[in-house]
Design brief:
- With 194 residues, the chain is an alpha/beta fold.
- 54% of the residues lie in helices and 13% in strands.
- It has 9 helices and 5 strands.
- It has a 5-stranded parallel β-sheet, with helices on both faces.
- α2 crosses α5 and α3 runs antiparallel to α5.
- The radius of gyration is 18 Å and the shape is globular.
Length: 194
């Protein structure tokens, strides 16, 4: 029986580092954000999303203007919920297909920045939170995205806090020192598999 493990973490926590290490162990990893991007390029989803935004979010190449959509939903909760109502079910279906394709694996990891907010954790056998001290997270994002501290803090305020996520998580990995992070991942995977 395949176990599904949810993995989440706030911006700058180092989820990608953890995901890459898990994937290097031949464990299938589903990255919900990447799936969401791919799904938003499907013709039927483009049509639904463009209609939702009054035909004002198409680029010249026929794809969705994700930057414009992000600006709109950032200030409009109803539009965000309606957008999620289109994208989340499509991602859920895509994940079901991913699980079927990898049904011979002992573990499948589903990475999602909004694992708890979206309710996706409910289909998981266990959940892992990747975290790091706030100052380290801010520095990582500033360096990675070339943005000011205020921009990073604004993004962080739009996410569920690590404290809230930790209460819902079965395991917490603190990602500061790389080797120590790898050791923590190994211990968690061992515990999940036994």
């Amino acid at each position: 029986m395949t176990k599904i493990i949810g993995l989440t973490g706030g911006i700058g926590s180092g989820k990608t580092t953890v995901i890459n290490y898990i994937a290097s162990k031949n464990i299938p990893v589903y990255i919900a954000d990447e799936a969401g991007k791919y799904i938003m390029e499907k013709p039927e989803v483009i049509k639904q999303v463009n209609t939702l935004f009054n035909n004002e979010v198409l680029l010249h190449n026929g794809l969705l203007d994700r930057k414009k959509i992000a600006e709109i939903v950032f200030n409009n909760k109803e539009k965000l919920e309606a957008l999620n109502g289109i994208v989340h079910p499509a991602v859920a279906k895509d994940f079901e297909d991913f699980v079927k394709r990898n049904q011979n694996s002992k573990l499948i990891v589903k990475e999602s920045a909004i694992l708890f907010e979206s309710g996706a954790y409910k289909v998981c056998d266990a959940s892992i939170l990747v975290t790091a001290p706030e100052q380290i997270r801010i520095e990582r994002v500033m360096k990675r995205d070339h943005v000011a501290k205020e921009e990073v803090l604004k993004r962080m305020r739009n996410q569920m806090s690590d404290e809230e996520k930790a209460k819902l998580s079965d395991f917490v990995i603190t990602n500061i020192d790389l080797q120590e992070t790898y050791n923590q991942i190994d211990k968690v995977l061992e515990e999940i598999l036994t």
